[in-house]
Amino acid sequence: MNPIIKNILAIIAGFVLGSVVNMAVIMLSSSIIPPPEGVDVTNMESLKASMHLFEPRHFIFPFMAHALGTLVGAMVATIVAATHKMKLALGIGAFFLIGGIVNVYMLPSPTWFAILDLAGAYLPMAWIGSRLVYKK
């Protein structure tokens, strides 16, 4: 297969599978750590209006979703890519980082969480994900 096409498929596969992992963790989160009473976590307006009710424990799964989604996406991109494996993995991290930045602006979260999430869940996890499967 043409390496350019294989690299494009690596980016698509990494993004799709990373997104699936992200959503799976988010969907699982409310059954393990229930949201505050009366909060509909599937509704952005409900989340915005009730963010002040969230405790630090409510941010564990969103961070895990972002970090694990990026990690898996980067691993997949690294495995599928023909060339530039680390660059493509970091590209996956950058895609998810952009989503995280948009999320910070759309959904007001505590500053500590925004800093932790943006600094720790995306580019570092993409680097780790690539290094786990590609040792060069």
Write structural notes for this entry:
It is elongated, with a radius of gyration of 16 Å. It has 136 residues and is mainly α. Helices cover 74% and strands 0% of the residues. The model has no long low-confidence stretch (mean pLDDT 94). Helix 1 packs antiparallel against helix 3, helix 3 (60-80) packs antiparallel against helix 4 (85-106) and helix 4 runs antiparallel to helix 6. The protein has six helices and no strands. It has one domain.
Helices and strands, in order, run as HHHHHH
Termini separation comes to 22 Å
**Could you tell me the mean pLDDT?**
94
Overall form:
elongated
Number of DSSP-assigned strands: 0
Separate helix tally: 6
Write the layout of secondary structure elements.
Layout: H1 3-32, H2 44-50, H3 60-80, H4 85-106, H5 111-120, H6 123-133
Q: Which terms summarize this structure?
A:
136 residues, mainly alpha, single chain, elongated
